[in-house]
Amino acid sequence: MPKVCIIIPFFNEQKRIDKDAFFSFIQNHTTYSLMLVDDGSKDATFAILTKMKEQFPEQINVLKLAQNSGKAEAVRQGILQANDWQEFDFFGYMDADLATPLEEAPRLISYLENSQIHFVLGSRIKLFGWDIQRSLKRHYLGRVFATSVSNLFNLEIYDTQCGAKFFRNDLIQDLFNDKFVSKWFFDIELILRFRKKMNEKFSESLLEIPLQHWNEKGESKLKLTDYIKTPYELRRIRRFYK
Hints:
The protein is α/β, with parallel strands linked by helices. The chain has helices at residues 19-28, 45-55, 71-85, 104-112, 136-153, 172-176, 186-198, 202-205, 224-241; strands at residues 4-10, 32-39, 60-65, 90-94, 119-123, 131-133, 164-168, 206-210, 213-215. The N and C termini lie far apart (39 Å).
C-alpha cells in the first residue's frame, strides 16, 4: 500500500474541526498521515490540533505558522515540512472543513498508481446519483471563473479551485520550492508549474476526476475585496508565468 500524506490548512477553525472524521479516517487507513497546518489562528485551533496529534503521533503532525499567510503558503510550508517528516509516495491537500470527505482521497490516489499519471485533480461536477451539494450562486461564479482561467491560460480544466489535489512525491521541488504569486489562486500556479515541467507530456500526466461526494460548508473565506481583486490576481499570475 502506498504511503500518503494529506496537508490540511486551518485558520480560526476551532468551531468546526470534526475530530471524529479525522480519527476515523486514519484508523481505517493506516498508510495515510495528516500534516495539519495552523495558519496563524487567533482562536483555539492550534490547541485542538496539538491534542489530535497527541492521540495519533505516528500519523498526525502539526505545523504552526507564526502569522496568517494565506492558504497558498500554508499548503506550501506543510508540503515541505511533511517531505522532511517521513518518506511518502504521494502527497495532496484538502480543506479543513472536509467539504471533500477524506474518504475521497484513496479513490483519487488510486489513479496515481498508474505510472502515466502524476497529478490528480478532484472536480465538483454534479452527476446523476452522486452527492455534490453546492449553491447555485457559487456554482455560476465558479463557471465564470473557470471560463476566464481557461481563456487566459489555455487550460481546459473544469474546476481548478477544488480543494482536493494529489501528486507524486517527485514533483515536490518543482511545484512547491518557490513561493506562490497568489494567496488564493495558487491552484492555477501549481497546474502551470506542472505544465512547464511535463511539457509535451502534460495532458497525458494530469487527470481530472469528478468527486462522488462534496458538500458546501458555509461561506467562502474570500471577502468581497478578494473577489474584486480577482481579475488583477489572474493577470498577475499570467504575467509571471508567461
